[in-house]
Design a protein that fits this description.
With 145 residues, the protein is mainly beta. The chain has one domain. The protein is built from one helix and six strands; from the N terminus they run H-E-E-E-E-E-E. Strands 1, 2, 3, 4, 5 and 6 form a six-stranded antiparallel β-sheet that branches. The N and C termini lie far apart (54 Å). The model has no long low-confidence stretch (mean pLDDT 86).
């Protein structure tokens, strides 16, 4: 049985209704979600297909033989996503969970080549990163301007 008060109805004015805010959004909870192990990348390159000045042939620079080991990323906490409008601008708000990068190690070969896949060419040097770790928290706002 429902109390009689639950059947009561009161009209609300338009001006009162304008001050009512319905809040909704999406929350995504992360409980130490970890991406780790070993990751490889064959080639990442950028280049110019027609060269420049007196260097009129294609040229590419980049890295190959990339290996990354260790904990790549750990997500902990809650991400909150909301969207709203000020009347003239619509914006998306993303409150990030805690994102921890590392501890990871990386190795790669730096190269110059006439080929996009960096085959042939010259080795500029070797890249090595050991024990990299950082943490990111904060918010992201997305809107048109």
């Amino acid at each position: 049985m429902l109390p009689v008060a639950s059947f009561a109805k009161t009209a609300i004015s338009d001006s009162d209704l304008e001050t009512v805010v319905a809040e909704a959004g999406v929350s995504i909870s992360f409980s130490n979600l970890t991406v780790g192990g070993s990751v490889g990348l064959s080639v990442a390159s950028w280049g110019d297909s027609d060269g420049f000045d007196t260097y009129t042939s294609a040229g590419f620079a980049g890295i190959n033989a990339v290996t990354i080991t260790g904990n790549l990323t750990t997500l902990s906490g809650t991400a909150n996503l909301d969207i709203g409008s000020s009347g003239s601008t619509t914006s998306v708000s993303i409150i990030m969970p805690t994102v921890t990068l590392g501890t990871m190690n990386a190795a790669a070969t730096l190269k110059l080549s006439t080929n996009k896949d960096l085959s042939g060419g010259n080795v500029l040097g070797l890249l090595g990163v050991a024990g990299f770790s950082t943490q990111m928290t904060g918010a992201i706002g997305v809107y048109a301007h």
